[in-house]
């Protein structure tokens, strides 16, 4: 038979253990992914002829630059800059639902002298005008790229015939496998 003093001591010990369990950091069965690289984005995309109501398909050319990169997971600390020169196809449609898509490839040279390849594909109907990108060759081949990307209209590239191009700025992450939230870095 437990005495009131023993019962109180047991209750106090149980309360302390429960409180410690609540204060302890939660152990997750799945840790959040950490990117191979986090970079500043600087891009320019041009359409020839300008995309618009009368022109539904155009050639794409320009550059996608990743600058001031750092490697949170230590996978590629030597890689700090690359500019991919890109080509592809842009499409615009207004009927029955406005849509925009872009697809293409690019090649570039990292600050280390190593070359790399890039594939991009995006469609507004799939929820985002920002294309998915994947490194196809060179360092970080297989990495997917995502992040905060802000298209900036270039009024010198907008005329009655349509849109001849735009710039994009932001921050992106290179992910080996599962992509996380780039804004966390």
Q: Structural class, from helix and strand content? A: mainly beta
Tell me roughly what share of residues is in helical segments: 10-25%
Please tell me how large the radius of gyration is.
25 Å
SSE order, as H and E? HEEEEEEEEE
For the sheet with most strands, the description reads:
8 strands, antiparallel, barrel
- Beta-strand residue percentage: over 45%
Poorly predicted ranges (pLDDT <50, ≥5 residues)? 13-28
Structure characteristics:
185 residues, mainly beta, eight-stranded antiparallel beta barrel, 1 helix, 9 strands
Ordered list of secondary-structure elements with their pairings:
Blueprint: H1 4-23, E1 37-51, E2 57-70, E3 82-93, E4 99-109, E5 115-123, E6 132-137, E7 144-153, E8 158-159, E9 162-175
Antiparallel strand pairs: 1-2, 1-9, 2-3, 3-4, 4-5, 5-6, 6-7, 7-9, 8-9
Overview of the structural elements:
By secondary structure, the protein is mostly beta strands. Helix content is 11%, strand content 50%. The chain is built from one helix and nine strands. It has one helix at residues 4-23, and strands at residues 37-51, 57-70, 82-93, 99-109, 115-123, 132-137, 144-153, 158-159, 162-175. Strands 1-2-3-4-5-6-7-9 form an eight-stranded antiparallel β-barrel. The model is unreliable at 13-28 (pLDDT under 50).
